[in-house]
Amino acid sequence: MSSGRLYDGFLPGRYQFDAYGNGGFRFADMSHRGSLLALPSGIRAWPVASLADLTDEALDPIFAEGDALELLLLGTGAEIAALPAAFRARFKEAGIGLDVMQTGAAARTYNILLAENRKVGAALIAV
């Protein structure tokens, strides 16, 4: 891990975010350029640069978490944006709470909830 990059785009475990901005994130003594999924199973690169890039396939890793995930914080970038109804319905059907907010707010809220050992995840579009 000395390269400071996600191995195969995935780092097992749960880590707080140390910083965000400049197109990426810092966590676990590493930096990553681009968007991220922070889930109970680990942190992975996420190929979503804006809500327009969001697909069912991009959301699949979130729903694969099963009962380990109760709430997902979706960081939509520098500005808050509305999530299409079809995606909201998928979260409701899976029984996963969803909060949509700016990426910075989502990263900060994730850190707080993670420190409380909550079953939380974050899907963060890089800013």
From TrEMBL:
The protein's matches in InterPro entries, at most eight in alphabetical order, are given as:
MTH938-like_sf (IPR036748), NDUFAF3/AAMDC (IPR007523)
Query: Which CDD domains would you find in this protein's record?
Result: Mth938-like
**Pfam families referenced in this protein's UniProt entry, alphabetically:** DUF498
What is the protein's given name?
Mth938-like domain-containing protein
Q: Which organism is it from?
A: Microvirga arsenatis
